[in-house]
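In practice, a research group might receive sequence data for several interacting partners and want a quick structural hypothesis before committing to experiments. The following worked case mirrors that situation: the sequences arrive first, and a predicted assembly follows.
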Amino acid sequence: MHLAYFTERPYRYGPNDHIIEKGFFGTPNTFFDPEKGHELYHEYLDEKVLCEELGFDGVALNEHHFTPFTMGAVMDVEASILARITKKVKIILIGNPLPLGNPLRLAEELAMIDVISKGRLVAGWVRGAGSEQFAHNANPAYNREYFNEAHDFIVKAWTQPGPWRYEGRHFHYRFVDPWPVPMQKPHPPMWIPGLLSPETALWCAEKRYPYIALATFLEPTVELWNIYRDRAAELGYQVGSENFGYMQKVYVADSEEKALEIAKFDMFGGAGSGYSLFAQPAYNFPPGYNSKLATRRMATQFTDPNKKRTSSPFQGGAQSESARADVSAAQVDHRSRFWQEAKVDVNETRKAIYAQLPDVLNSFGIICGTPKTVIPKIRVVLDTLRPGTFILWQNDGPITRKDRENNLKLIAKDVMPAIRDMGKELGLQSAYEVKPGSRALAHAGKPDSVGSLEPWKAWREAHPY
Amino acid sequence: MADKAQWHQETTNVDGAELTVIKGGSGRPLLVLHEEMGHPGWLKWHAELAADHSLIIPLHPGFGVTPRCEWIWNIRDLAGFYSRFVRSQKLAPLDVIGFSLGGWVAAEMAANNQDQFKHMVLVGAAGVRPTEGEIMDVFQLMAPAELAATVLDPEHTPEFDQLYGGIGPAQFELWEDARAETARLAWVPYMHNPSLPHLLRVIDSLPTLLIWGREDSVIPLSAGEGYKKAIARSRLVALDKCGHRPEIEQHAAFMREVKGFLS
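A structural hypothesis for the assembly, expressed as C-alpha cells:
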C-alpha cells in the first residue's frame, strides 16, 4: 500500500463572510497579504518534510486558481522545491490541469522535477475545475479535447526521441525536442484524480492509470470502481487495488472534543457543503464543460426553484436509477448547494454549513477522533474500497500550524502502523507493487470487483444514524 | 407563442451536412439568423413579418437541433456554411436579419460577399468590439440569468415569458448546447472579430439598417456605432428604453423600422 498526505494548503486568513456570500473563486486578491503568504508557503513546505520524517510514502499536491481555497496556484513551483528539499517521498501531482496551458512547457517542467528528484515524480492530470477555465481563459467547450490531446502530446514528448514535428487539432509545435527528458522510464507514472466522472474512469481504464477518488461518497465510488472494472475487462485485464486510490479526510487529536473542533474548520475546506462555496454555479459549470448527464441534472436544479432536495447528497445515491446519474447528481448537488436562491444570508449559510457536520461525519466525509476511534472507521473505508493508494487529506480550513502538526504526528505514531497492517491483511497493493493493467482475467467476461459495499452497509446497520 | 400552423420545420442538406430550418410566411425570402441562446420561438414579430415575407430561420449547427459541424471553428466558418446554404437553395440575393450572434454571422457573410444580400438588418449584433463598455460575459451567468439580462425589464417586457416557450429543464439543456457551441465559436476573441470592421469596409452597395437598444447591456450601443462607421451608408437606429431585444421590448418601433426598410 502507498500511504500519502495531502492538504489544500489554504490561505487561512481568507475573508469568511465574503467567501460565504460570493464563493472562494474570485475573492479579490486585495485580501492576499504577501507576508502571510510567505509564512504559509514555508509552513506547507516544511510540513511535507515532516511527512517524510514521519514515514509517509508520498506527498500530494494540487492546484487551483484565483482562490484562497488553495495556495498552490502553480503547484509545479512547490513540487520543484520539494524535489530538492525531500529525499525519499514520492511527489504526487494530482493534478496538472491539462486544458489550461501549454503542454510542451508542462512536459519540460515535469521532466525537470523528475530529474531533480531522482525519479520521484508521480504526474497526474485533471480537467481543472470549471472556475479554472475562466481563470486561464481556456475554452471549456474544448476542455476534454484539450485534455486528451495534451496528455497524448506530453507522453510523446517524454518518450519519442526528438526532434520531431507535431501538428494536432488544438496544439501545434513544428519543432519538438525537449531537454531534459524524465529520469523514470519510459516516463513517470500517471495517477488520475477525480470526483467520479464516469468518462474519466473509462479513460483511466483504457490507459491503465490508477484512478484516485477525492474523498467521494462511498456508494458511488464503489459504482465507479465497477465502471472501471467493466471497461478493464473489455480490454482484457483484471483490476486490482493498484488501479485505485482513495483520499480520506482524517483528523486525530488527543481527545474526541479537540478532534471535532479542528474537523469543524474543514467544513470551510473540502468537506461537506462548505465545498459548495468553491465557486458559484456559473463558474463551476461553464458552457460545454459538463457531461450530458451533469447538464441534465443541472437542468432540473436551475430551472425549478421549487424543487427541494429529497435527501442529503452525503447519503450517496442508493435510491436513484443508475450509478452514473447518482454520481452526476451528487456532483451537481455538492457543488451548487448554496446559490440556488437569489440571495445568500451569510449567517444562516454559515449555520447551515456547520449544521451538516454530523452528516459529514456519519458518511465518513470526515473521520475524526482519537487514534482508538478512527482506526475502525478507516478499516471500513479500506475494506469497502480496497485502494492500493490511500491518501490522508487533512488540514483544510483555518486550522493552526500547531494543530496541523500535532494531527500529523499522532497519525504517524498511532494510526499509520494500523493502516499499514490493514493494508497487508487486505492485500492492498499499490501501483508501485503491481503494474496496473497487468493482472489477467480469471475467467473471460466476468471480472472480480475490487470494492464491495458490504463492509460499509454492515457498519451503517451497526451504527444507525 | 403564436399559432404553430404559421410555420413548419424541415431538414435540408448543405454540402453533406444536415441543417434544420424553420420556415413560415409567404413573399420575398428573408433569412433570419438567430442569437446565441438559440431560436427563441415564433413570436409576434415573426408573425407580422411573415405576412409579406417567407421567413427562413436556420437553426445553427451545434445548437441542439442541427448537428454540430466539426470543421466550423469560428463565426467566419459559420458564415461560409450559410453562404453555401443560400447558394445551394438558389436564394441569393435575399434580405437578411440577424440578431446578436446571428447579426455577426450576417455581417461576416456580407463582408465576404455583399452581393448575396439585398438588404441587411443587424439587431444588437455581436462581432464588433464596442468602444465604450464591454460585451457582457454571458458565460459568467447561468442561462436563465443570461436570458433575464437580455432585456431592460423582464417583468414588463411583452412576450418575455414566451421566449423559448418559457424556462424548463428541456429548454435548459438546449441552452447549454447553444452556449457550448457559442463558446466553441466565440470564446476568444470574445464575441467579436478584430478584423471585421476592416473587412466590412468593402461593402459599398448593400443597404444596411442597424437597430440597437440604447440600454443594451449585452452588446453596448457603441458596437452599433462601430458597425455604422464600418459599413458605408448604413443607418443606426437607437431605441430608447430598450435592451438587447428591440423586437419585443420596442416592438412597434422595431416593426416600423424593419418594414419600412425592407419594403
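Before designing any experiment, note the following. The CA atoms of residues 150 and 244 of chain B lie 5 Å apart. The longest strand of chain B covers residues 7-14.
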